[in-house]
Amino acid sequence: xxxxxxxxxxxxxxxxxxxxIWFYFTYRSVQKVMRWEEAPATITQLxxxxxxxxxxxxxxxxxxxxxxxxxxxxxxxxxxKVHFPSGDPDKAELKSFFSLWFVTLILGIFWVVFGGIGxxxxxxxxxxxxxxxxxxxxxRGRKITIPVGEVVHDYSLKVxxxxxxxxxxxxxxxxxxxxxxxxxxxxxxxxAQFLESKKEIDVYIDPNDMKRYYLDISFxxxxx
Length: 224
Prior knowledge:
- The protein has about 220 residues and is of the alpha+beta class.
- It has two domains: about 5-110, CATH 2.40.50; about 140-215.
- It has helices at about 5-35, 95-135, and strands at about 35-45, 50-60, 60-65, 80-85, 95, 140-145, 150-155, 165-175, 180-185, 200-205, 210-215.
- It is rod-shaped, with a radius of gyration of 30 Å.
């Protein structure tokens, strides 16, 4: 498997795991909001780490618990709300936006970032493979020959600290007097020495859409 496929697959996997955990915590928070009972409460003490002790009454009986969530704006005597499973005040928790949704927000960000990078990256790689299959291997592309351009180090992608190379070339369409730029797929070694004797390189273009193309690098040796 190509290094970029491995990288984007890992991102997609991490995004999937984050989504599953996000779904679990979101579902749990929604259930608390919809089904748990509420009661007014008071912060009676803050320990040295800022975690509050909270007291409240339920059916005329006092209850007290230590909350594992803390905030810089908490203070002794502060009126707060608690919630708990119906009829079970011993499982009470502080009810606040952050205690309910902070974890889901963080996981949601990780899910969107990692999952987005992974899925979009895999989609782009799949699209490139489809173009190669359709335009080059199946011979449906219009072949043009362009001058060999330059070899560029693409630092936008890194796998194990390494970035791939791409071959960039340009073609002047004299019919429409437009200049088109074409890039090769990722190459995981510097191909410059294998281009020294080549003056031209082939590009296969979709006749109906000039933006769909495949730059042929099949002449390059495969890295073992």
